[in-house]
Automatic annotation (TrEMBL):
Stretches for region Disordered: 1-31, 366-385
Keyword terms: Membrane, Transmembrane, Transmembrane helix
Gene Ontology terms for molecular function: acyltransferase activity, transferring groups other than amino-acyl groups
Record's protein name: Membrane protein
Acyltransferase domain: residues covered: 35-335
Compositional bias per record (Low complexity), positions renumbered to this chain: 1-14
Top-level taxon in the UniProt lineage: Bacteria
Compositionally biased tracts (Basic and acidic residues): 15-31
Transmembrane regions listed in the UniProt entry: 66-87, 99-117, 129-147, 211-231, 251-274, 281-300, 320-338
């Protein structure tokens, strides 16, 4: 039997303030984390980076394209579902809003500026900077900001997942939404986030059973074979969830049908993927805390390689070259999640920014309460003198 991780799943509704958590010792913070989720985040971010590296190489290999289609069918859904699970505690309180700004808005502005500048100075093609038009990977930060802001609403409605699916289906048949904030993708990926909001730790334990792990083998084998068959027959644009049916050249009603079909397939593959995630502490477990760094940084490396034409080298379009690229990118994104990188870039990815915010009233009241005994003691000493 595949048992759950020995450490309990940390509840997002912690009784400790965010400041108290920040000042805890590393050992105590690590004990509060569940190795399973850190492992899942690390493995998902490696798949994201590898999938992006395969994109400029896949045209020459039907097998690689099939693997690309398979990975794209579940890697972002899995990442978004876990993000939704850990967004359950968002309630719009001052502390949570502060974290939303420092952990999502600030890195979005920084990297939404960095990517166009990279294209301008490395590729030589001037690229305008627009905070309303997410560039390359930054769409996820924009989407996560919107999803998390709407969390209280999804916790309020009676049937959140059917409603989210309805919105995604409508978005897949609406070509006039526009590209601002990448709203088509935000809306079409929404059901995975809402599903994550409504999951509980025991739901993850269900997919981590030994029977599910065994069943995942033929499921992935069939999915890979189906992907190989579908390569010349299906438009891979459906996997990106950023276009309507009409924009993909099919009648509007195909959009909702494909949205439902892809949601079911992605959910099944996500469950199979999670069944293979180790529940115990592994050598890469601590890297799960730095997946945002790996996500944002690997794009800069891959875009640089693309602009420099490195992917055009004939050797990389052969099986050994494709394997080499896969290994190099997996190692690179792993290094980007390490502690030294996080410490060096925390000022842009996870800045404190205490100077920009008012002190929380609850925190101020707690500090005044702590100071009162000392003041009373000083008054007694003064009276005695």
């Amino acid at each position: 039997m595949f048992h759950a991780a020995s450490s309990p799943v940390p509840s997002p509704r912690s009784s400790e303030s965010e400041k108290d958590q920040h000042h805890q010792s590393p050992d105590r913070r690590s004990k509060q984390r569940d190795a399973f989720f850190d492992n899942a985040k690390y493995m998902a971010i490696v798949l994201v980076a590898v999938g992006h590296a395969w994109e400029p190489l896949k045209g020459d290999s039907r097998v690689l394209t099939a693997a690309y289609v398979l990975v794209y069918a579940f890697h972002m859904p899995a990442f978004i579902l876990i993000s939704g699970f850990f967004s359950r505690s968002f309630d719009g309180s001052p502390g949570k809003l502060k974290r939303l700004v420092t952990g999502i808005v600030v890195p979005y502005v920084v990297f939404e500026t960095a990517y166009p500048l990279l294209k301008t100075y490395v590729d030589g093609a001037p690229q305008d900077i627009s905070l309303l038009d997410p560039y390359y990977l930054t769409w996820f930060l924009c989407a996560l900001f919107i999803w998390r802001l709407t969390t209280p609403f999804w916790k309020l409605v009676r049937y959140p997942l059917p409603l989210a699916l309805g919105i995604a289906m409508a978005a897949s048949a609406t070509p006039n939404i526009g590209g601002d904030l990448d709203l088509p993708r935000v809306l079409q990926f929404l059901p995975f986030f809402v599903l994550g909001l409504n999951l509980k730790p025991e739901h993850f334990r269900l997919v981590r059973r030994r029977s599910v792990r065994i069943a995942a083998v033929p499921v992935f084998a069939f999915a890979l074979a189906f992907s190989w068959w579908a390569v010349p027959r299906m438009n891979s644009g459906w996997l990106y969830h950023r276009n309507s049916a009409q924009e993909l050249g099919v009648p509007w009603w195909v959009g909702p049908v494909m949205q439902l079909a892809l949601f079911g397939c992605s959910l099944l593959l996500t469950a199979c993927f999670l069944s293979w995630v180790p529940g115990r502490t592994m050598w890469f477990t601590t890297l799960g805390a730095g997946t945002l760094y790996g996500y944002l940084l690997h794009g800069l490396v891959l875009k640089t390689a693309d602009y420099r034409g490195w992917f055009d080298h004939p050797a990389l379009h052969r099986p050994l070259g494709e394997i080499a690229v896969t290994v190099v990118v997996a190692v690179a994104v792993t290094l980007m999640c390490t502690k030294p990188v996080r410490q060096a870039l925390r000022f842009v990815v996870e800045p404190r920014m205490d100077w920009a915010f008012k002190r929380d009233a609850t925190e101020l009241a707690r500090e005044r309460e702590k100071q009162r005994p000392a003041e009373r003691e000083r008054e007694k000493v003064g009276a005695g003198a």
